[in-house]
């Protein structure tokens, strides 16, 4: 049975409007989720969500109009799913990086070097056993693809394809075992928690076993992928016209030699460049209740700085609503760094694994314009998207999970 049965993998993410007209209903779905923000008593959550989405839709529509009129998150997550499925169904354990092209046009770079296999074991949560029900009407469900051990799907929380719509499709495809992989590396009840709760609620109506991966903030291959894009981002400051002296506006600094893995050479000559890790914000009340998100963000940064000795700062972006959020905000941090004479900043969107409005609008447009006014040269690292080592990290998580469950 193990050799014939196809294991389903569902990549869980936020989702995003696929057109300007989808912005308001997307916002309504988002603000209707009490795990993100509680808007008064529960019976008023949806009416208030409708009001907020109506008031904010025009402003948000204008933001999306500046990045192509839609969110690219479904296209990118689908590309991640496709690349991951190909990697999982290979005979060899580790895929050659040359056979995995980067995602155009949003993936800005590839990776050279070796992928190092790891025996890392992910943090796993197993939902309760599920009651059996008969197959849906219309006859017997179609079987899974026999030549594939894994089939990867995409399930979004707040826009199509919604988790509640994808699970029935997986069941019709003959999937009876699911590895659910949250694409939020750092766990929060507002992100991974919300998506996994929705998945569990939907799956309870089907005779499907699930194995949930809720957190992987310090997975070695994930860290390796982040280190690679940070190195490339630092190297983008090597041109004379790119690096500003923090003591003066003199731009006659000599080019910096390429970075060498396992050495500080090169980094020491980048003293004028500082790294700003920008994470998605979180209401402070959720943090006070013991949400591990901030701890895991710092855990990711700790693993990165074990490999590259950088000068770094942490800030939070994407605040919404009148409640108190985590501080400092990214815009306030930029102002603070400007007063300290910092002239060159590389932004790393630490909690994001793909391009969407938070990277393409907030960082690339909003914060970059602010930085220019402050006299700062601001650059952003490439998003992970379909970065080969990142895909290997996802593959490792899935394989270890399936083995842990005894499915392979």
Radius of gyration: 22 Å
Number of helices: 11
Determine the CATH topology of the largest domain. Answer: Rossmann fold
Low-confidence stretches: 92-146, 248-269
Helix content: 25-40%
Strand order of the largest sheet: 2-5-4-1-3
Structural class estimated from helices and strands: alpha/beta
End-to-end distance = 10 Å
The general outline is globular
Q: Kindly estimate the percentage of residues that lie in beta strands according to DSSP.
A: 5-15%
Indicate the multimeric state: single chain
Number of separate structural domains: 3
Run of helices and strands: EHHHEEHEHEHEHHEHEHEH
Largest sheet: 5 strands, mixed
Characterise the protein shown here.
It is a single chain. By secondary structure, this protein is an alpha/beta fold. It has three domains: 7-14 and 71-216 and 387-405, Rossmann fold (3-Layer(aba) Sandwich); 20-65, no CATH class; 220-380, Rossmann fold, CATH 3.40.50. It contains eleven helices and nine strands. It has a five-stranded mixed beta sheet, sandwiched between helices. The chain has a four-stranded parallel beta sheet with strand order 7-6-8-9, sandwiched between helices. Strand 8, helix 10 (357-373) and strand 9 (377-380) form a beta-alpha-beta unit. Helix 6 runs antiparallel to helix 11. The longest helix has 21 residues, at 45-65. The chain starts with 6 loop residues before the first strand and ends with a helix.
Main traits of this protein?
408 residues, alpha/beta, Rossmann fold, 5-stranded mixed beta sheet, 4-stranded parallel beta sheet, 11 helices, 9 strands, 13% strand
